[in-house]
Every structure is written in structure tokens, then in C-alpha cells.
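Q: Entry one of two.
A:
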Amino acid sequence: MDQSSLLLAAMPVIGFVAGFINTLAGSGSLLTLPMLILLGLPANVANATNRVGVLCQGIVAVATFRQRGALPLGGSWQLIVPAVVGGIVGAELAVDLDEALMRQVIGVLMLVLLVVMLFKPERWIAEHEGRGQPRLLVEVPLFFAIGVYGGFIQVSVGLLLLAGLVLGAGYNLVGANAMKNLIVLVLTAAALVVFVVNDQVQWTLGLLLGAGQAAGAWVAARVAIKRGAEFVRYVVIVIIVLSAAALFAGVGL
């Protein structure tokens, strides 16, 4: 069996791991994007095709959080709308633009995020009653910027959304994790439309990944609800360290 056949056979398994990681934290695309490129897809087509799996995982994760009563929807439109608009802008940029610089920028941001999580853990695990009074002048530009990044390349956007939702919008970590999945789902759907219009999606590979990612999301959402904020925080810390190291080492795109 040649390398391509092995990669194809492994896609649902890699998708499962990526879906699990993405649902709990982010950066699962560090696994799926290189695999799509190794299968011969150009970087821009791999970047677009990767969104199919993210969309599948998002549908399952959001449905699971919603079914379990763990998705706080109050006032969420102030976060979702700017993120989606940003996602469309980022996807338009990604059609032609090289993403190497953005990868390095996100590596720096993740290291900053790691410092905050290690030295201010109470901010991440505090049980807030709600997200508090919306601060539109902070939240709208913040989530627009995160949306631009997510539409552009997707890698680690979940980690940025977690930071914005906990530190910027006042969610507790489990609620932020559920809301993160909803925002990723909606902005991914919007970005995917742009890529489809530009004929950059390889549907067969995307759906193979999507099957695995949906299963991973189903498991991860239940784990997050059952184990709580402290467990999610430890998972996020581990993923931040590994993702930042991979990005700085040039692993991925």
C-alpha cells in the first residue's frame, strides 16, 4: 500500500482526533491540513477542503452542547455577527494570499495566551453567572478580528475564541467552549461558501475527514460537559504548548 492509500485509510482516524481536539480547544487543523497537502492538494485547496470537516464537527458539537443545556445563547449575536463578517473577509483574502506570516503571528498569540492561563487560572475556571453586560466597543472589533483569522486559515481559531470569550466577554470556560463551537460553525459555513464559489473544495476528502471529526466532536462535547472547566483548562494548556511549538517549527502549512 502506497503513502497516499495509507493516508486515505487514516483520514477518518485523524479526523476523529482533530474533531476531539477542536471541540475541546482548537488546533486540530495542524493535523488535517498537512495530511491534505501530503495527499497532493495545493495549499489553498487544502485550506478550503479542511473547512468541510470543521463544519461537520461543528454541527455535531453544537447540537450536543445544546441538547445538554450547556450552550449559553443570551446576547450571542453581538459575538457571532462580527465573527461571521470577519470570516467572510478572511476567506476572501485566503483565496490568493500566502498564510506563512499569519502562522507565525498566531504562534506568538498562543504563547501569550499560555502565560495568561498559567498565571491567571482563576479567570478561566471561575463560574460566572453569565457573560455580563456586553461591551460592544471591545467585543465587536475583537470578534471581527478573530473571524478574519478564522476565515483566512482556521488553524487555532478555537484557542483565540476561547480567550476572547473568557477574558473579553466574561464566559466561564465550559460555556465559552460551547459558544466557541457555535461561532466556529457559523463562520466556517460562511467561509466555505466563498471557497465553494471559487471552486477550491475537494469534497470527497473533506467528507472523509468530516465523518471522523463529527465522531470526535460527539465524544469531546460530552467529556467537556462531564469533566468541567478545570479539565478543559488543562487540555487547552497542553494543546497551546504543542500547537505553538508546531507553528514555530514550521509544521503544518
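Q: Entry two of two.
A:
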Amino acid sequence: MSDPEMLKAAMLLAKMALGDNFVPKEFFRDDATSLLKESGCAEPQDPVQPLIDNGILKEKTALGFRLLRFTLDPLAESLAAAHYVRTCGGDAECLKKLKEDAAKSPGFLTAIELIEKGTH
């Protein structure tokens, strides 16, 4: 997996990990694999394994389910923030709504603000 592919995969999975409330949590490996394959990341190889091998994600098994989690919550927040800020582009209204939605998640909000400052 190339570095740009890995970054794209990590940002997509970070968005998945944060969910609707923007708080990092565990997610199913099967869901992650499906999302990455649908997004065209590194097929036909397993697109999740390189992220585990490089220490970005960690995996555990519980009740027969393979679960993933980012090794560090700030990493997940930063990658998801980068994804959302890129999606907004330079749209000020989009960024304003994103910040309003993220207000209850201080780590994610801080990551958005840092990434936004870095793009100016």
C-alpha cells in the first residue's frame, strides 16, 4: 500500500471510528474492510493489515468479532478532522457547521481548528 493510499485509508477509518458523536471508539474489522474496498483502497490486498502493521490501528477479538481501534485517540481525531476539512474545501459555511457539530467533542474540535489553521 502506498503512502497516499494508507493516508486515505486511515482518514476513512478515523471517520468511521469517530462516528456521529466524534468520539473515538472500536469498530468492526469487517466493516472497515468493506468501507476501504468500496473506496478502492489497495484491492485485492487486505487494506486493513498495513495499518495494523504500521502501528496506526490495534486489533482484538471479542466474542468472535475482530475489533479495531486507533492506537491513540488524538491520531483518530486528527485524521478524521483532516478528512472533514478536506471535504469542506474552502467552504466557510461547511467548516462552521462542522465546528458546531463537533462542539461536544473537544479533542476533535481542537484537531479541526489546528488543521484549518495549517491550511491558511
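A: Comment on entry two: The radius of gyration is 14 Å. The CA atoms of residues 8 and 38 lie 13 Å apart.
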